[in-house]
Amino acid sequence: MKIGIVGLPNVGKSTLFNSITKAGAECANYPFCTIEPNVGVVAVPDERVEKLAKIYNPQKVTNAIVEFVDIAGLVKGASKGEGLGNKFLSHIREVDSIVQVVRCFENSNIVHVDGNVNPIRDIETINLELIFADLETIEKRIDRAKKMLKADKKYQFEIDTLEKVKQILDSGKCARTIEYTDEEKEVLKDCFLLTIKPVLYVANISENDLDNLEENSYVDEVKKYAESEKAEVIPLCVKIEEELSSLEKDEKSEMLEALGLKESGLDKLIKASYRLLGLISFLTAGEPEVRAWTIKKGTKAPQAAGKIHSDIERGFIKAEVISFDDFMKSSGSMVQAKESGLVRSEGKEYIMQDGDIVLFKFNV
């Protein structure tokens, strides 16, 4: 699963990417310093994994991971090939969801590609270019479906679905702003629409805003805009996050405490990005390894078992399951949890829940 970090040039997205991955992507105060997308894989912070590791003292600890892609800055006209438009569009097609960074602070020393700070304009600049690209895709598909309709009436449903999306795009809204039936989703699946991808907005604020966030009108504007898309907004100071990412664990904790923060903005972002993709984690725990396994929400037990090994899915018998919270209520003792009747035996139809601690029984 890939998450693309996008934004206009110089809004802080490459600095954010560096902070997340410590990959050292080049940062410079001029447009298009990011030409090829940089990719970084990061662990999803999970207190449950940390607590299980303290109980089992395993040889290995493995967190769930998310892949972030830093995508080249975009300007008006990208859908027509302006700037690095073609590269931008091809790279964004390859990601599963989008983190859009917008600048929400004034600083005369940092160049803004449009001359002044206006986060809503920045969001709409990117969204409109994606809308234009999607319109071109939809119109081609409608033309093709209409030709096929002469031979097969089943294409009428496809045309109706595509027209529904076209109407939304023509109004200047993204395809993700409306609901779709399962049948409509199936039609749209191979359209690879850009504006149907889920989005998370990062409001890049200044250090001074950390204590006075409610006074930042730019962030309020972004939140109101995001509400229309049922999207989440995470305000964070990219500059501070870059400093935090370079510190050792103890130093980082001290700095967070000095700033009056419980966790870094990046940890919030990584967790939110994981949720954005509709992902959850189930856990396995023992002396060899404590591990968080990534699955899609709604995954059944045998398919979850297949994440560990295909043989376990093929020979699935049952899953012994306990929620993380119930396990901790049992003083971190599986024996005590079983005596209390908190460990359940689940079959093939069981839908996995976030935080399930599981032991799969199988035979091949």
Short description:
The chain has 14 helices and 12 strands. Helices cover 41% and strands 19% of the residues. It has 364 residues and is of the alpha/beta class.
Describe this protein's structure:
The chain has 364 residues and is α/β, with parallel strands linked by helices. 41% of the residues lie in helices and 19% in strands. The protein contains 14 helices and 12 strands. It has helices at 13-21, 47-56, 85-93, 119-149, 155-170, 182-189, 217-227, 238-245, 249-259, 265-276, 301-308, 310-314, 324-329, 334-339, and strands at residues 2-6, 38-43, 60-62, 65-70, 97-103, 199-204, 232-236, 279-284, 289-296, 316-323, 344-346, 356-362. The strands form 3 sheets. Strands 2-4-1-5-6-7 form a 6-stranded mixed sheet, sandwiched between helices. Strands 3-9-8 form a 3-stranded mixed sheet, sandwiched between helices. The protein has a 3-stranded antiparallel sheet with strand order 11-10-12. Helix 1 runs parallel beside helix 8 and helix 4 (119-149) runs antiparallel to helix 5 (155-170). The longest helix has 31 residues, at 119-149.
